Amino acid sequence: MQEARLGLADTGLAPETAGWFVVNVRDAAWETHAVGDACFFESEAVPFDQLGIGVRVLWPGRSTWLYHSESAQEDFLVLSGEALLLVEEQERSLRAWDFVHCPPGTAHAFVAVGDRPCAIVMVGARPVGHTFNYPRSELALRHGVSVEADTTSPAEALASFREWMPLHRNDRGSLPWSDDT
What is the pLDDT, as a whole number, of residue 126? Predict the structure, then answer.
């Protein structure tokens, strides 16, 4: 297997060719969205076929996404900050180094709490025929992260959100590790 070529843009390094690579999260390409900021490590030109993996930074009061379940396994590791996990109509408080395992079909969402950003490593399987479910949830509605009506369409569920946009390198000063050396 060849080493991938990483290209540098205003948003950071991203793969331009297939293959193995090493990149520091500080140097990788980042995107921003209404739900927070994210480093996905892959690119449109070179998507990851089997696993989606990224680091998401949620700002206090914001969520990773809407309350949903998927037909594939997802796993999460809180790196810093605090979050409220909404899972199967229950709430769980999370802090740094808490790990969350969601087997296929587990409804969930995260909401950052406290006064600092919450950084979470997110990993999800990508099998053929992968599906999504966005159930209406009274618990998630109270936290502002539920659809009004059940849907299996991500486009329908997320229609009110803008697309992910590049997060330029000079706009990353507030990421949790921006002062680290």
Answer: 94
